[in-house]
């Protein structure tokens, strides 16, 4: 499934030095001199190359990647068709600016997005460079179309780091602290968070949904709302899966009130959740859908796709940007999308998701610091608590991640309370390799002192 490089990387975890090794140590020092201290590091090695689900570092260690560059490498590292397309494109041309001289790849990516996103209605797309930029453009489109200004978002939501998307993102530290003032007319609503939601003690979908609708009507006025923007499963917020009925209820409220329903599927898209898009789970058809991360195997690309009447309501040259829909990124996207479809990676997400979910549920039986196992498809997480309460346990999160690093397994943190561990493996991962990673995670949790 991945490219046959000259020296293929064995799909096995293998450490030949401590983590970080001596060459990585040197580079970490060099980086500290040159790179702003504001940028974090989840895994303290420097990469040399990567293939499939394995990252080879500069010291020769083979690291098991259960983060996939934050749900970007759904097709795995060095995916053959992505590399082939990119090489061909680079030999032909690298840039024109689509608004100066157009090229086929851009159109083909838009056709693919229009075809793959939920709903059989006529759709159109526009391409951008990053998830945040695409979210901003979706809001611009919704505002222009509705001639309204209010934007509704949710607690625990994450939409990016630009000024408007910082305002839309829920969590202060590290995303917003000291970076204000933020864009106005963004209103945050309670989120259906079954594990921690007082209102969810009652039948969840009716109580939280009705609270949200009540607040929108009383505090904003439905006729002032341009769009409701929500991640179908919250990513950075800790893989919060809203209770059944919440998303369809919001979509229905939008329809009844002329509000544009925007699904931010930047993290959940392209097969990750066992559907091509997470909205499909409850047959929700968004007016606009925002995509990025999984779209192009790491080349910078993002899209806004949706109702043709909405997408076409913008004046000529109202949207755009110098690099948006870069030809090399489009070539990568076409390779990634072809691979997801040909290799049935949507189905595979369910298969590896079940392996992860089964293993995590077994761990939850053994370890009282696991408060909840949740997710869908190949997007699985555990929320860590102090035993005997549901108090967040961020110390355990740190300790577990540190242990996994020492064993060469890359896992990612998440959650408003910094107490969630999320697993986002490449969808092509070998099952034995995934099980190896899960057994290291099991050891890591066992090593945490309660
Ligand atoms: C990552 C992410 C974004 C921002 O994407 P960038 O490419 O980092 O700008 C927006 N929304 C969601 C749900 C994300 O996970």
UniProtKB/TrEMBL annotation:
Keyword Hydrolase set for record: no
UniProt keyword terms in alphabetical order: Aminotransferase, Pyridoxal phosphate, Transferase
Classification via SUPFAM superfamilies: PLP-dependent transferases (SSF53383)
Gene Ontology molecular-function annotations: (S)-3-amino-2-methylpropionate transaminase activity; 4-aminobutyrate:2-oxoglutarate transaminase activity; identical protein binding; pyridoxal phosphate binding
Catalytic activity: (S)-3-amino-2-methylpropanoate + 2-oxoglutarate = 2-methyl-3-oxopropanoate + L-glutamate; 4-aminobutanoate + 2-oxoglutarate = succinate semialdehyde + L-glutamate
EC code: 2.6.1.19, 2.6.1.22
Domain of life the protein comes from: Bacteria
Enzyme class, UniProt record, top EC level: transferase
GO annotation, biological process: gamma-aminobutyric acid metabolic process
UniProt family annotation: Belongs to the class-III pyridoxal-phosphate-dependent aminotransferase family.
Protein's recorded name: (S)-3-amino-2-methylpropionate transaminase
Species of origin: Candidatus Nanopelagicus abundans
């Amino acid at each position: 499934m991945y490219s046959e490089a000259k020296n293929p990387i064995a799909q096995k975890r293998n450490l030949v030095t401590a983590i970080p090794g001596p060459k990585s140590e040197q580079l970490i020092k060099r980086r500290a001199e040159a790179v702003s201290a504001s940028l974090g590091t989840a895994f303290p090695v420097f990469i040399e190359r990567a293939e499939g689900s394995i990252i080879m570092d500069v010291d020769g260690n083979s690291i098991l990647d259960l983060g996939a560059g934050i749900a970007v490498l759904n097709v795995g590292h060095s995916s053959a068709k992505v590399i082939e397309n990119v090489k061909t494109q680079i030999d032909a041309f690298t840039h024109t600016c689509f608004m100066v001289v157009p090229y086929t790849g851009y159109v083909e990516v838009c056709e693919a997005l229009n075809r793959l996103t939920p709903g059989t209605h006529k759709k159109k797309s526009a391409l951008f460079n990053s998830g945040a930029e695409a979210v901003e453009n979706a809001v611009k489109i919704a505002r222009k179309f509705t001639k309204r200004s209010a934007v509704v978002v949710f607690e625990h939501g994450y939409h990016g780091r630009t000024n408007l998307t910082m305002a839309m993102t829920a969590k202060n530290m590290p995303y917003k602290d000291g970076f204000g003032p933020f864009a106005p007319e963004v209103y945050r609503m309670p989120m259906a968070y079954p594990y921690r939601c007082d209102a969810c003690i009652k039948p969840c979908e009716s109580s939280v949904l009705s609270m949200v609708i009540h607040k929108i009507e009383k505090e904003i006025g439905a006729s002032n709302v341009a769009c409701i923007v929500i991640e179908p499963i919250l990513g950075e917020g800790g893989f919060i899966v809203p209770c059944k009925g919440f998303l369809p209820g919001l979509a229905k409220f939008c329809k009844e009130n002329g509000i544009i329903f925007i699904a931010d599927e930047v993290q959940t898209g392209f097969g990750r959740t066992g559907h091509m898009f997470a909205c499909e789970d409850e047959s929700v058809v968004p007016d606009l859908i925002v995509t990025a991360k999984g779209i192009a195997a790491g080349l910078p690309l993002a899209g806004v796709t949706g109702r043709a009447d909405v997408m076409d309501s913008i004046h000529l040259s109202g949207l755009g940007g110098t690099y948006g829909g870069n030809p090399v990124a489009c070539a990568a996207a076409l390779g990634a999308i072809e691979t997801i479809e040909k290799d049935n990676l949507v189905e595979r997400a369910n298969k590896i998701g079940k392996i992860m979910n089964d293993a995590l549920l077994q761990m939850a039986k053994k370890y009282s610091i696991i408060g909840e196992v949740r997710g869908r498809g190949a997007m699985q997480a555990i929320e860590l608590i102090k035993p005997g309460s549901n108090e967040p346990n961020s110390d355990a999160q740190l300790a577990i991640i540190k242990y996994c690093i020492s064993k060469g397994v890359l896992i990612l943190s998440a959650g408003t309370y910094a107490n969630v561990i999320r697993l986002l493996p490449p969808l092509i991962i070998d099952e034995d390799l995934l099980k190896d990673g899960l057994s290291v995670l099991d050891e890591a949790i066992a090593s945490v002192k309660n």
